[in-house]
Design a protein that fits this description.
Elements lengths: L34 E3 L4 E3 L14 E7 L2 E9 L7 H5 L4 E3 L2 E3 L4 E4 L5 E8 L8 E2 L3 E3 L6 E9 L7 H6 L3 E3 L2 E3 L4 E4 L5 E8 L4 E3 L3 E4 L5 E6 L9 E10 L5 E8 L11 E5 L5 E2 L3 E2 L3 E6 L2 E8 L4 E10 L4 E8 L4 H16 L12 H12 L6 H11 L2 H5 L5 H8 L3 H14 L7 H4 L6 H9 L4 H15 L5 H20 L1 H14 L4 H20 L3 H13 L15
Parallel strand pairs: 6-19
Antiparallel strand pairs: 1-16, 2-4, 3-4, 4-8, 5-6, 7-8, 9-11, 10-11, 11-15, 12-13, 14-15, 17-18, 18-27, 19-26, 20-25, 20-27, 21-22, 21-26, 23-24, 24-25
Length: 565
C-alpha cells in the first residue's frame, strides 16, 4: 500500500492566450499576453460544518436539459471584505475533463454560502471519473498545501492509476493535468495528492474585449489550442450594451476562410432580462440562425441596454472564431477599426495595417446569412443589409471572407455614409450606392453588377479611384480620354476582360452622347483593354494613360459640347 511517488509537472496553464488578427488565419505574434489574476478560493460541495450529501468535489445535480448535466459546489476561502460574486467570476473549475473559466451561474445562498453551478455537456467518449472532496493533509513541501482526494467512478476493469493520470483537477485556482502523486489503497480506493502553491495563480485572458467610441463593443473568442487532458472548454462572458445602440450582432464560423460552422461548438446568448436565444427567428427586429443547439448568427435591432451574457462550449481542438459586437451609432467604419485597434493593443497583438480584414465578424454576418441555403424573408434581408451595408451584395454569390476583406479596403471611405443611410432608410438605400462613388455610374452598369455581384467591392473601388484622379482635370477632352483608358485598364486587370467589356458597353448605353462621343469612348476603351496586358501594375495604367494623352495617342471627341460621359 505504498503510494506511487511518480511526480508530474503541473505544466503550463490549461489554455495559452492566442489571438488572431481579424480576417487572417495566420496567428499574429503576441508581445505581452494579458493575464487575469485567478482567485485563491476553493470550489467544493462540502457544506456547513463539513456536512455533504455527495462524495464529489462538485455535486452531481442531475440532467437539467437534454445532453446537459449540472454540477455545483460552494466557494470557500473568500477573503473578508471581498465581493463574493466578483471572486466567483475569477474562479475557474475542471469537471469531467471540461474546463470552465467561471461558473455557468452564480447563486448566493446566504448563510449556506456562495455556490457555482456548472453546465457539463454529456460526452460518451470521456469516462465518468470525478475527484472527491479536496481535504488538506500533511506532507506537502514548504510553500505548498497538500490536498488529498479520492477518484470516484472507477470500475474493476479500469486501470485505476491510468485513470488518475487522465483526470485533471483545479484547486485554489491552480490547474493540475494529473495528481502530483497517486496513492493506491486497494479496496480503500485510489487517491490523488495535489501540492498547491501558496502563490496566486494567473491565467491568460481567454476572451478578448474592447469598448470603443460611439458605444461600439467588441468581444472575440478565437481558436484555443489543445492542452493536456482537458477535452472541452466552457467560457462565460458578459458584454455591456449601452442605451441607444442600434444593433447587436454575433457570428460563429470556422477559423479558416470558409463560413462553415465548426464541429462541436455550442454558443448561447442571453439578454439582460434573461431571455435566451435558442431558436430560429426572422422578424423586423431580430434575426437568429441556429446550427443544432448553437447560435450560428444573430442580429438584434435596438438591443436592450445592459449586460448580455455569451456562453460557449468548445472542443479543445476545435478551430473556430466567435465574435459578438455592436454596430456603433456614428462613423461606423472608422469606429469599428478604432475599436479593433484598441482590442489589439489590449491583447498585445502586433499592429497591422488598417483594412477591411479587421472587421471580419462584420463581413462574416453577411457571409453566413447569405451564402448559405437558408430562406430569408424581406424583413430579415433588410435587417441584415442594415448591419452589413455594402457587404450584403459583396457576399451574395461571392467568394471568401479574405477576398471580400481585401476588396472592402477599396470602399472603406464611403462605408460610414452607406451605413448611416441604411440605418435611416433601410433596404431602399441600396439604390443610392451607385451615386456615392461618383456621378459616372449608370443604371445599365448597375444591372451588370447584379449579374456579377462578387465583383461589387472591386468595381466600386475602381470607380472611386478613377473619379478621384480625373475630377480635378480642367481639360474636358483629357478628362474623358484618360478616364476611359484608365478605367478599362483597371477593370480588366482586377476583374477580367469579359467584365470590363460588359461594363464598357453598359456605360455607353446608359450615358450615350453624340456619334463622335461614342466612337471616341469605344476607341479609348479598346486602348485601355490592350494596355492592361502591357503593364505590370495598376499604377502603370494611369502613368501610361497620361503619357499616351500627352503623345496624342488617345482619341478626342469632335463634339465638345456634350457632357463628358
Amino acid at each position: 500500500m505504498n503510494p506511487d511517488r511518480t511526480r508530474s509537472c503541473k505544466g503550463p496553464w490549461i489554455i495559452k492566450a492566442l489571438h488572431r488578427a481579424s480576417g487572417n488565419p495566420e496567428p499574429s505574434p503576441i508581445t505581452q499576453p494579458p493575464v487575469l489574476a485567478v482567485s485563491h478560493c476553493l470550489w467544493d460541495s462540502v457544506g456547513f460544518l463539513g456536512f455533504s450529501t455527495d462524495d464529489l468535489q462538485f455535486k452531481d445535480d442531475g440532467i437539467i436539459r437534454p445532453g446537459v448535466r449540472q454540477f455545483s459546489a460552494r466557494l470557500w476561502n473568500i477573503p473578508d471584505g471581498e465581493d463574493w460574486v466578483a471572486i466567483a467570476q475569477r474562479s475557474p473549475a475542471v469537471i469531467k475533463r471540461q474546463y470552465f473559466n467561471r461558473p455557468t451561474r452564480i447563486v448566493d445562498k446566504g448563510a449556506l454560502g456562495l455556490w457555482g453551478e456548472f453546465d457539463v455537456l454529456e460526452t460518451d467518449d470521456v469516462p465518468a471519473w470525478y475527484w472527491g472532496h479536496m481535504e488538506p493533509v500533511e506532507g506537502g513541501p514548504s510553500g505548498f498545501t497538500r490536498y488529498r482526494s479520492r477518484l470516484w467512478g472507477l470500475s474493476l476493469s479500469d486501470d485505476w492509476k491510468a485513470g488518475a493520470r487522465q483526470t485533471p483537477a483545479l484547486i485554489e485556482g491552480h490547474y493540475f493535468d494529473q495528481p502530483t502523486e497517486i496513492e493506491d489503497l486497494g479496496v480503500g480506493g485510489l487517491y490523488g495528492l495535489f501540492d498547491v502553491s501558496h502563490e496566486s495563480s494567473t491565467s491568460p485572458a481567454l476572451v478578448a474585449q474592447a469598448m470603443g467610441p460611439n458605444d461600439c463593443s467588441y468581444c472575440l473568442i478565437d481558436t484555443l489550442p489543445p492542452q493536456g487532458n482537458v477535452v472541452r472548454v466552457n467560457l462565460t462572458t458578459t458584454m455591456l450594451v449601452r442605451e441607444g445602440t442600434p444593433y447587436l450582432y454575433s457570428v460563429v464560423t470556422r477559423d479558416d476562410d470558409s463560413v462553415d460552422f465548426p464541429d462541436g461548438v455550442v454558443m448561447t446568448i442571453q439578454d439582460p432580462s434573461g431571455t435566451t436565444y435558442d431558436r430560429d427567428i426572422q422578424d423586423d427586429n431580430q434575426f437568429v440562425m441556429m446550427s443544432g443547439s448553437s447560435i450560428r448568427c444573430l442580429i438584434i435591432k435596438d438591443p436592450e441596454p445592459g449586460n448580455w451574457t455569451m456562453r460557449m462550449s468548445v472542443p479543445s481542438d476545435a478551430g473556430f472564431r466567435c465574435e459578438c459586437n455592436t454596430v456603433p451609432d456614428a462613423d461606423v467604419f472608422d469606429t469599428m477599426v478604432e475599436t479593433w485597434q484598441q482590442l489589439a493593443e489590449n491583447q498585445g497583438i502586433a499592429t497591422r495595417d488598417v483594412s477591411g480584414g479587421q472587421i471580419a465578424a462584420y463581413l462574416a454576418v453577411a457571409a453566413t446569412t447569405l451564402l448559405l441555403p437558408f430562406p430569408l424573408g424581406l424583413a430579415a434581408r433588410g435587417l441584415i443589409l442594415a448591419v452589413t451595408g455594402v457587404g450584403w451584395l459583396g457576399f451574395t454569390h461571392s467568394g471568401t471572407k479574405a477576398a471580400v476583406s481585401q476588396n472592402m479596403t477599396e470602399v472603406a471611405g464611403i462605408l460610414s455614409k452607406v451605413m448611416k443611410d441604411l440605418k435611416e432608410e433601410g433596404f431602399s438605400a441600396l439604390g443610392k450606392y451607385v451615386y456615392l462613388v461618383g456621378k459616372n455610374i449608370s443604371y445599365e452598369e448597375y444591372q451588370v453588377i447584379l449579374r456579377y455581384p462578387a465583383n461589387l467591392f472591386q468595381w466600386l473601388g475602381v470607380h472611386r479611384r478613377v473619379y478621384q484622379v480625373v475630377e480635378h482635370m480642367t481639360d474636358a477632352e483629357e478628362q474623358n480620354a484618360v478616364r476611359h483608358v484608365y478605367w478599362q485598364c483597371l477593370l480588366k486587370k482586377r476583374l477580367g476582360e469579359e467584365f470590363a467589356i460588359a461594363m464598357g458597353d453598359a456605360h455607353e448605353r446608359g450615358r450615350p452622347g453624340s456619334d463622335a462621343d461614342n466612337r471616341a469612348d469605344e476607341i479609348n476603351n479598346g486602348i485601355g483593354l490592350r494596355l492592361a496586358d502591357e503593364v505590370e501594375s495598376e499604377e502603370e495604367c494611369l502613368q501610361r494613360a497620361r503619357e499616351m494623352w500627352a503623345a496624342g495617342q488617345l482619341a478626342k471627341r469632335v463634339d465638345l459640347e456634350a457632357d463628358p460621359t
